[in-house]
Write a structure and sequence with these properties.
The protein is an alpha+beta fold and 251 residues long. It contains 6 helices and 9 strands. Strands 1, 2, 3, 4, 5, 6, 7, 8 and 9 form a 9-stranded antiparallel β-sheet that branches. Strand 6 and strand 7 form a beta hairpin.
Length: 251
């Protein structure tokens, strides 16, 4: 009887432990509130989540959107009769290969963090329709686009808050802000000038020489999509987590 009761108590403890940790995906490493340097712990924990963020795989109990590929809403540029360009069905590969350059724990109690990420290479494809005048060249076409952004840097601002409910303090996050700087971009538009090879090469060269004009509209769309995706991911992953689950007093 003692042996059976003992086994039952051990099983009960294991079940309770499993229940408490099920609030957080097992891949997330928790950081103690009493850690004298929480920045290092949080950084190590975040860096280990790169694959999970890319694939959306956080375990059977979590249905979370993936970061790869990143799908953007259509970008529509209309600057008068001399500049009309539309990019649709935009798909971006590479956001999941981010490198954490720096992290600032602004306020652990208020769940306030700032990250700086490097995005080594973002490769994109899309459909396009274009009728623009650049450098006295009229460029027209409709078809497929591909290209890349290299060595981009993103500033990610995370602002959370605590939601008291049923005697517990649940973790919640406001919309995550993302700002991106893209120093190098390359575009290749197929079928410019109805497929004329010589004029197509000229058109692509002129477009790439003036790439910042296109980035002025493409970057906000990329920032908005990353903001929505990061916010959706973090609030899904931590939907049942409390402050005590994430940052226990002791580990």
């Amino acid at each position: 009887m003692y042996f059976k009761l003992n086994n039952f108590l051990i099983l009960l403890v294991l079940v309770n432990l499993g229940f408490s940790y099920a609030k957080l995906p097992s891949v997330i490493e928790r950081c103690s509130r009493k850690d004298p340097n929480p920045r290092d712990c949080i950084r190590a924990s975040v860096e280990k989540l790169r694959t999970n963020l890319a694939t959306g795989n956080w375990g059977d109990d979590f249905k979370v959107p993936k970061l790869e590929p990143l799908l953007l809403d259509g970008i529509y540029m209309d600057r008068g009769k001399d500049f009309k360009a539309n990019f649709t069905d935009i798909s971006v590969n590479g956001p999941g290969k981010w490198i954490l350059e720096d992290i600032k724990v602004a306020d652990l109690e208020k769940l306030t963090f700032d990250f700086i990420l490097t995005l080594p290479k973002l490769e994109f494809t899309s459909k396009y329709s274009l009728n623009v005048r650049l450098a006295i060249v009229d460029i027209k076409g409709k078809g497929n686009t591909k290209g890349y952004f290299k060595n981009s840097r993103a500033r990610v601002r995370v602002r959370g808050y605590v939601e008291p409910k049923d005697g517990k303090n649940y973790v919640r996050f406001r919309r995550i802000q993302v700002r991106i700087n893209i120093p190098e971009a390359k575009f290749y538009l197929e079928n410019l000038f109805n497929g004329d090879e010589v004029l197509g090469q000229l058109g692509n060269r002129v477009i790439n020489e003036n790439s910042q004009i296109f980035l002025a509209d493409l970057v906000p769309g990329l920032e908005n999509s990353l903001s929505e995706k990061f916010t959706d991911i973090i609030n899904n992953v931590l939907r049942d987590a409390t402050v005590e689950d994430m940052f226990p007093p002791e580990l």
